[in-house]
Amino acid sequence: MLHTRLEIRNRNEISFFEAVENQFQEIVQDFSKTLNIAVIGKKGVGKSSLINALLKRNHQNPGIEAGTCIEVNPDLKILKLDKRVKIIESLGFDNFQENISHLTRELFKPIDIGILVVNGDADDSYQQQLDALKNHCDSIFVVLNKIDNWDGLEPSSVEKVRGDWHNTLKIETIYPISTSRYQSKTTSDHQLALQHLYLLRQDIENVLDAKGKTLLMARHISQKKSHAKNIIAKALISVAIQAFLPENIAYITATQTAALVSLYYLYTGQIISLKYAIAILSDFAAVENHKDFVLFISSLLPSAGLVNIESSGIKAMTITLAMLSTVNSLLASGVTLPGNQRLQFKFRPYKKRAEDTFKTLKARQLGDLRFLKNTIEPFVV
Ligand SMILES: Nc1nc2c(ncn2[C@@H]2O[C@H](COP(=O)(O)OP(=O)(O)O)[C@@H](O)[C@H]2O)c(=O)[nH]1
Ligand SMILES: [Mg+2]
Hints:
Helix content: 40-55%
Largest sheet: 7 strands, mixed
Strand order of the largest sheet: 2-3-4-1-5-6-7
Bound molecules: guanosine-5'-diphosphate, magnesium ion
Number of strands: 7
Number of helices: 14
Protein name: GTPase domain-containing protein
Domain G: 36-146
InterPro entries: GTP-bd, P-loop_NTPase
Pfam families: MMR_HSR1
Strand content: 5-15%
GO molecular function, one term: GTP binding
Distance between the termini: 26 Å
Shape: elongated
């Protein structure tokens, strides 16, 4: 964990930071969890290609850290993305268990997500694989890969094959995708494949979200933008509500610091302490020539019970968006915080833009996650 020294000077500050700490502990992401994903399917169905597609990795964009790949044998590979996150690629579960028996106990941890990859015409020999997957994994997905093999045939042929698999495996959702061929073509099948790959990613993300594990995976996906937007938009919704609570400044600071911890982890994989996050926030005080962080933050944020509900929420959101988008743009360009001079140049323009953007917001829009994600699109690089 990254720590830093933060000078706390007076009583006022001590009680403020205690209040922040209590809130922070409740909302900060728990990074001690593990994440195991298994991708099962016959040789050549496109398991490795699917893993790359899920991590948005390709030749131009291989990802910052590739992770270590342990090849137990040609039929079983374990991609250790970091010490808590593993993707297991295997022909099947029987083989997976035999092979795995000589590995460390660590590998027997429960599997969060199991993905069965199939190709071609429906085949009931997969039923057993699917049952094994259901036994070992909390959530399962079935992917019909290489649908470009039906290119040039009747457009309904993909749907027919999908329906056959549906009946054979008795599974509700099957994702028809292609993990390699559709880079440049724009046929209707192409659209179908892209749409379903997108859906698959979304559905996997929903499962991870429910388990509080989204960031464990997101950290390894080569494009961070959508996750950064999510972290920031959720923080904005929280501060809009907190703006009306007593002790609101401690709540809002806790939300901002928890979002900073998430952004930091997303880009660097490092878990920063609350003090470290507050040190980053203090840099914003320096930009505005404030020496005292608590006074600074109080001057920016609405006081509780402020006349107008909309305007307190909007004030809290504006400052939070300016801070988080500044931090996001610095982290995205690979610089370290706190104490970075570039923060000064970025913060003011972001604040001005945030003020202009939120000026016209209506009260009902303050809690609309989808709307906010669209609104902050230009802020998140
Ligand atoms: N036509 C087609 N080929 C694919 C697709 N996805 C992967 N492949 C190819 O299928 C072969 C096997 O892919 P790979 O990911 O290594 O399969 P694995 O053995 O299951 O890991 C490779 O030559 C890939 O380029 C796809 O969507 N369509
Ligand atoms: Mg492979």
